[in-house]
Model the fold of this input.
Amino acid sequence: AQPSAPDPVAAPLRELPWGQLNFLHTTDIHGWWGGHLQEASYSSDWGDYISFAKHLRDRADADGTDLILVDTGDRIEGNAIYDSSKPRGKFTYEIAKEQTIDLICSGNHELYKAESADGEFYHTVPDFKDNYLASNLDIINPETGGRQPLAQRYKKFTTKNQGIRILAFGFIFDFTGNDKNTFVQRVEDTVKEEWFREAIKDKEVDLILVYGHVDIRSQEYALLYSTIRDAHWDTPIQFFGGHSHIRDYHIFDSGSVALESGRYMETLGFMSISGITTSRHQNPNTNSKKRTLQFQRRYIDNNLFSMHHHSGKNATTFPTQHGLNVSLAIGSARKSLSLNHIYGCAPRDLFVSRRPYPHNESIFTWLETELLPQSIKSRDPSKKALVIMNTGGIRFDVFKGPFTKDTKFLVSPFTSGIAYLKDVPYTAAKRVIKLLNNAGPILSSTNDANATFLLPPEHVAAARYRPHLFDSSPTDPSEHPNQDGMLDFASVDLGTRQHQGNQQPLRDTHHHHASTEPPPLIPGYTTHDDAGSDGDDTIHAPIQFYNVPNCIQAAVGFSPASVSGSGSSSDSAGPDSWVDGAEMVDGDESEPEVVDIMYNEFIEKWVLLALAYLGESYSAEDSHLYEDGKSFTDIMTDWVEGHWGVDDVDDDGEAGCPS
Ligand SMILES: Nc1ccn([C@@H]2O[C@H](COP(=O)(O)O)[C@@H](O)[C@H]2O)c(=O)n1
Done:
């Protein structure tokens, strides 16, 4: 772990259900190679993962089973170690390649920009050679200018100890936001291709493995499942997915399941399959390949307490020299990028989903009521503006205390600036936010335009496939009353962070085993999936997560009381109420005739669609860039320096902020 990472906390654990064939799965790492430095539950780094995998591989070799490591993409964007280096990714590829990943693919973040797709071409693909699969992804070769598969389409291999013959494919979902140098072929077209049809005709396989940067409940995986199952009625099919940033497990049938392993190095997914018939291990009782199969999953919290326990090691025996070297390399990259540099001290926690919106501790309320109106200036003092941001542009929480260079990129890694359209009739402009939030016929008519893409990934997943994942009910103050009759969030607080009340940091696993007192449950993930509620390795007290709107809006140049909010009601409003929008409040200043509409560049397509629906025709050519394209990330950091900045901070991340 990194030197400043909090010590892990003892907690009751479920064992790893080790089997004949075992997997470790990472996804959506988004550059969190250093682990979480403010959350004890996820405080292990990539070096620790290297040591952990080594111990599990040794175990497999010792008992004649197999272990396969899978990563399903989005390794980049979302952490200062990637986003603040010049060139971006300077350290990422070197760190990633230290782990022996047996099956790896691209996510959509690798493809948003031509440079990062080229980064895959020049670094990740050669680093992982035959282990990188690109079943539906092509790239323009930067050397020749010709189009070619980014990597091989599929592969067949035999596991080392069990001799299991595996046919593997590596997909990405039907992503359309990629730069011009890559081509994502829709899955429905890929399954019709000759090479795919030929590949799945192969009967000399014991297991088919489909991994990809694809939501496991998506149409893409449903189609791959049915197509493969049609060709293989009894071959086990294992899926690994990603993209939606959640822990999830889906059962297709008794011989086919899918695992998704969260985000940001919070989770190491573990999967095992037993009962696979191989040429070496014939099942004597049946001629079917799948009847005695047993699939089991576990979501491991990425911390040393879990890793020591599951590998049967302790603080002394766990770290390998290789793992320690990688941890050191991450530390020196962080130092060279000055990631502990403090811009200011956050006076309170600000959450993406762990508080309702609006709320004093909602990061979106902070943006809407403080940061945006106090940062964004209208073109001239007589002009008013409405500033719209998509909630998906904000990637992580702010914790009370030092707001560092690390925090800056964890919260807002993207380079997007603020675009604006001048002098839009106010009657239409004020309705855009409500249209974006409650969608409507245009915004949900195609996948491409679907406004749920404005949300953070976990919420996109909930909106599209898992309606019950987040709480949309109004908060009931009587549930956890404090003295003011307000919700007492201390009682549902994270607990996974460094400051964890009376939790005892754990330095030695044996210390915990000797104790007779069961430790109090730490709040954390309590996953409910198709196999039940026993998937998490760590038994946690639940945390409440709340719905957020697609977009929030701040009013610039209006008197504070004159605009009535973001139009973010979560009810399914009918056509008449889609267009209510942010209304002037009676008795305040008169409505302007025109305003500028300002928005995060990323959402331009949706803003233009909404305006068109409201009868105002604008195109991308009509938009201008605020302050020469200054990124929202920099706008936010300037605000933090101006409002939360303190004089006497040092750069080690400790001193300077009141506790
Ligand atoms: N420049 C960008 C890029 C992405 N977003 C938001 O992120 C979501 C996708 O995230 P994944 O990690 O799941 O790929 C996307 O839906 C947007 O909400 C953004 O705001 N700006």
In short: The first strand starts at residue 21 and ends at 26. The mean pLDDT is 87.
